[in-house]
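Sample intake sheet
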Amino acid sequence: MSEQEDERPPEKPESPYQSRGFRFIIGTVASALLTGLASEMLNQSLDSGGWVQWIGLGVTVLLGAITIIQYGPAIRRSWQHSGDSAPELHATAEEAEQWMIALGSHAGGMAAAEWYAMNEEWLRELLMAEKPHVDTIDDFARICDALEPWYVRRADADALLQLSDLLSAAAEVCGRRDLAELAAARAATAYRMLGDLDTASTRLGISDNIATHSRTTAALTTRRQVERALLSLTRADRSPAGNDRDEAVLNARDRLDDARLKRPGPDLAADVAIAVNLAVVHLYQQDAEGALDQLRPAVARATAAGDLSGQAHALELMGVAAWMQRNRHEAAGRWEHAAHLYAEIDEREGQARCLQHLGSAEVAAGRLNTALELLEQSAELRTSDSEILTKYLDAARQTSDLPVVADDPPHRTVGWLKRRLRSLRGFVGRTP
């Protein structure tokens, strides 16, 4: 074999869609020819009369039968478009929806995390291979819904953005404005997670513009308001102390209050999400007691709903509020409890944050060996780099100065609070 033949790329196998398309074209031409031939013979036989007429009729019927046998299945498949994949897609959507409900819950939270870890890639490939159709679009959307909380938990903004694009394309093909509205809101969450706040705001505006009057309207309105609040909190996090930062925090509070008023009826999950984000607003305003007023009922609601993830988030913030009040023993207790709950449902980012809080408290107390152990455990659980964690690890190893001035009163250490809330960035993104 020559060198040129060695370098020749392997032939690309024929796509089944290409071969089907070619056969369809050939079949169409053949069908037209058969129809024309049958018409001509029928006309001739009718003009001739007698036995010639009967032979012509017989041949015409035979040609018609051949056409039906050859192309009947294709015609039937076109009538029942995507009928083969519909039962499988529906069953998959049912299963994914059940695991989504279990994710983060007291009953089945760990099993749900294991199921997602095993099946997420397969679900995404299924969505990418599925041809959008009006008969299956709702099941397609349910699988997208099930994947979203997993990507948010894993802080996988790129996968979440791809999910939004898939739903947006399917919604356009099927003429579903309600799903296009949801896809745009989901894209806004992804862009916020990526740090592109301007694009995130633009996508929320697109979602507003294509809003429908479907049964999901109220829920999506609530989601957009919460998302805008989170954008404002992210802007506050990026701003130095001053008017811009204060304005961003106040805007977040207004959005969350509006979301609470417009939420679609009793919804414990939405109540918990709104309450914990309002607590963050109070913490930015140096109002620890106001934050606790939001967090106490949030813990109760999350507990009633069996939502261990929401309960752990609220407890984690209660630890931050206790630390602001200089109640370090209570803060450590809250973080330990939250870390235990996160571990029960395999929410590793949350567990890592709590271990980081506990480690930083040990650094502040001068117990560097204990601090180093906790912070190294946190680093092992992290799926992304954390600048704050690195600073505390350096301090625990005595390779840099202490990043927190522990003797300053909390109400005077705005920089301390920003660092503490920045370590919660994976949490401050909880949407209903």
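Comment: Residues 268 and 334 are 22 Å apart (CA to CA). The longest helix spans residues 16-48.
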